[in-house]
Design a protein that fits this description.
By secondary structure, the protein is an alpha/beta fold. It contains eight helices and five strands; from the N terminus they run H-E-H-E-H-E-H-H-E-H-E-H-H. The protein is globular. It starts with a helix and ends in an 8-residue tail after the last helix.
Length: about 190
């Protein structure tokens, strides 16, 4: 009993220290879908979770039209590119795929929200230049297409302890992502 109370107090303190007011057990609205790879699949916030382990943006794009169909969505959070960077895929291909997903969403009356990918600490951080370049291009795409952009890189940068293996996030990393996203997108029914 004392141990579980201490755990609750520690988690509440961590949440307050990080400036997080929402609990990760809360689910986003069923009108908000989350498209991505394993970072999305492992995230507890999405009620409509379209994350698939190991997928590149090419694979995401292939299933995107059917995955978002007939779901009565108002927006789709698109977080993709981590596996592309790990596989050395050309950033132009990644941006083209993200742009196509955004166009498909818009054509169906769904607001696409692009996301910069988190840091990749695996491989001794040697992929930092590729991550920075991809995120720069994602930000440029969002600006040119007048799309909302969520920066997951900056709040997670410098916090390798938020990652379990240098790629995938621990609970505290997802709490940071929850907080970051909630400040950009209305995730809950109002």
């Amino acid at each position: 009993m004392r141990r579980s109370l201490r755990t609750v107090v520690c988690l509440a303190s961590l949440s307050l220290a990080l400036g997080i007011t929402a609990c990760s057990r809360v689910k986003a609205s069923s009108h908000v879908a989350f498209m991505g790879d394993s970072l999305t699949e492992m995230w507890t916030l999405p009620r409509v979770n379209l994350g698939k382990y190991g997928q590149t943006t090419t694979q995401m794009l292939k299933r995107f039209p059917t995955d978002i169909a007939n779901k009565n969505l108002r927006s789709v959070i698109i977080l993709g590119g981590t596996n592309d960077v790990l596989l050395g895929i050309d950033p132009e291909t990644i941006i083209s795929n993200l742009s196509s997903m955004a166009a498909i969403a818009r054509s169906r009356g769904i607001e696409p929200v692009l996301c910069e990918i988190p840091p990749i600490y695996a491989r001794q951080g040697t992929l930092a230049p590729q991550v920075a370049e991809l995120n720069r291009r994602i930000a440029t795409l969002a600006a040119s297409e007048n799309l909302r952009l969520v920066d997951f890189y900056d709040p997670l940068h410098g916090h390798p302890a938020y990652f379990s293996d240098g790629i995938h996030l621990r609970s505290r990393g997802y709490l940071v992502m929850d907080w970051t996203l909630e400040h950009k997108v209305s995730l809950f029914e109002r």
